[in-house]
Amino acid sequence: MRIALFGGTxxxxxxxxxxxxxxxxxxxxxxQVLFAPTGRQPLKTxxxxxxxxxxxxxxxxxxxxxxxxxxxELDAPHPNxxxxxxxxxxTALRRIHPDAELLYIVGADSxxxxxxxxxxxxxxxxxxxxxxxxxxxxxxxxxxxxxPLMLTPDQLAHVxxxxxxxxxxxxxxxxxxxxxxxxLAASHLxxxxxxxxxxxxxxxx
Length: 205
Fold this sequence. Notes:
Layout: E1 2-8, H1 15-27, E2 32-37, H2 52-63, E3 69-71, H3 86-96, E4 101-107, H4 108-111, H5 120-126, E5 128-132, H6 143-146, H7 153-156, E6 159-162, H8 171-186, H9 192-201
């Protein structure tokens, strides 16, 4: 079984997330993509706008688009408020699926900060990496691109670049649209069920 973890704040989840997950699932024959809303990201100073319960509910609605998608609470907020580290999440996922092939979906901009993550070398052993090259964060897996990451040939073999995606949607932009123009202004960027949830709960106003 081939399972990919797709972490992020999903604040809110949008059509770009759905299309990225679908492209990764198609290209790498994934049996399941697990969307994992993150409680607190270590490298971000700002906290998510929506509560975790709302982000999890919206992500579940977005996942209804594809039977290969599901949500997980493996990255739920810690009771003591400490950051959520990917190494902990992948380790927990490995315990649940000891025989599965694990992959991690990440944007190119985030992947290039990998040396700032907790235990990066162990991360590269725990899972293969599907790196999404998007507009504004072009990556070609060339030596000049990856030199700061100091990857060994064996580590590089576990990194897979997914190109050809024209998704340039950001949750920040969507939140700005929601604040200035309401759900109608951002509905073209959101799964319909997510837009309805935001409207019903009065989020991002």
